[in-house]
From TrEMBL:
Residues 22-154 form the HTH marR-type domain. Pfam families: MarR (PF01047). This is MarR family transcriptional regulator. It comes from Bradyrhizobium sacchari. Signal peptide: none annotated. One of its GO terms (biological process) is response to stress.
Amino acid sequence: MSVEKDEAASSAAALARQWKLENGIGFLLRLLEAKYDGLYQSVTRQTDITPRQFGVLMALLQQGPMTASDLAERISCDRNTLSEMLKRMTARRLISKKSHPDDRRSIQVQITAKGTSALMAVVPAAARLQDLMLAPLSQDDRAHFLRCMLAIAKSPPPEPGA
């Protein structure tokens, strides 16, 4: 092994010994996601609408019909994942799809009456869930935490090798 590889391995080992798992963003995000998923199931008391489907329905309710591309961008979801989700939601009649009136090559998605009803059944529980998740924080810290999460989520990806 070369001297450079030995130094890199030694540096990595030192970093690993100092690493605090509880300070790792990936570890914390997984903990938060697990907590959220468990609470979502227990607080909403349903399994019909997943958290991602909740986002789809909320976006369509608030912004009206939109193309699948615009919806994917709005909820930060890749188009393949969204396409599969929209198929399932269409089959359950939570949304409807039709050709876009200005561009026949794209589809327009809209929430149905059944989708609106299903969403309204979950909204109060979703608001309660938000309060439960943020309960350990003061009001000021809640707003700051959410702003920080949004800033990280919406920041452009770093350059490779940066």
